[in-house]
Amino acid sequence: MLKRLKKLGFLSAAIAALAVVSMPAQAGKTLDAIKARGQVICGVNVGLAGFSGADSNGVWTGLDVDVCKAIAAAVLGDATKVKWVPLNAQQRFTALQSGEVDILSRNTTFSLTRDASLGLHMTAVTYYDGQGFMVPVKGKVKSAKQLKGATVCVQSGTTTEKNLTDFSRVNGLNIKPVVFEKLEAVNAAYFSGRCQAYTTDASGLASIRNKEAKDPAEHLVLPELISKEPLGPMVRRGDDEWFAISKWVIYGLIEAEEYGVTQANVDQMTRDSKDPVIGRLTGSTEDTGKLLGLEKDWMVKAVKAVGNYGEIFERNVGPKTPLALPRGQNNQWNKGGQMYAFPVR
Q1: For residue 27, how many C-alpha atoms fall within 13 Å in the half-sphere facing its CB?
Q2: pLDDT tens profile 19-69
Q3: Which of 26, 112, 224, 287 is close enough to 296 for a disulfide, judged by CB 3.0 to 4.6 Å?
Q4: pLDDT value, residue 24
Q5: What value, to the nearest 5°, has the Cα angle with vertex 54 and ends 234 and 125?
Q6: DSSP letter string over 181-240?
Q7: Kind and range of the H or E element at 75?
Q8: Residue 298 φ then ψ, to 5°
Q9: How many other C-beta atoms can be found within 10 angstroms of the C-beta atom of residue 103?
């Protein structure tokens, strides 16, 4: 009798587990609010070329911007239904914690402290970066370890500031940080000659050199990287549904590139492909959207709006852009990089 009860208990548990697996997602409070207002509110950088910035007509572009556009397309069917909230480094976490923005897509490093103490969730990495240094070419500095006793411009409220202190101490360099709250102030100080070097994420240095320098060729980004800086969007804790949507849209963009689904061919692939992965991704054979509380063509809408991850990268920061950043670590996992999407299935 006991064995029979145990067996029945096991079967009940198994049936319950299967029921949970197949249940459509419940809409979370964030998704409900977004649908009610008809907009995703996205926190972005005030201006970092290639990642987020507005032109004279108020049109926002950049890698971080495209992530929010993809999410808006997946959720609302329209990539233009985004309200952009520019935030500096000090404002960004408070704005997300307070509900001023739905998602923070603003060149933000994932770290243990941020994950464990801010009441926020890290979603998925959209750019693998590392902290570097920029110096004037005329100074003839070729290595970061030549910066002994140097003044280095850095923005406060960032992982960059602490990394600089650690690097200086470990290597006995006695670097003198010159700290500013606003990015504009850091830029102005460096380009006016107040600091002998500038430190931030290497992608940021390339962006700043291209945008702010009178002659970009007069400034060198040194080859060393002194930290790991995995960048990506963050959302508030307490809404698992919105966390899942934000994360899986990013994975979907990465997987779309891996399987050759592009902005130009997504309709044709949806219609003609026999690949089961593409069938799930496009919703032509399986409705993965219902598990997220979205329409079955959620990823088709996202890819049609901004392209796959590779297209986003190449358009905003790739070798043919003014930033001329190589794919490097941000290439697909099967091409020597670290971009590895969890399976959309």
Answers
A1: 11
A2: 444 455 566 899 999 999 999 999 999 999 999 999 999 999 999 999 999
A3: 287
A4: 54
A5: 25
A6: SSHHHHHHHHHTTS-SEEEEEHHHHHHHHHHH-SSGGGEEE-S---S-EEE--EEETT-H
A7: helix 63-76
A8: -55, -40
A9: 27
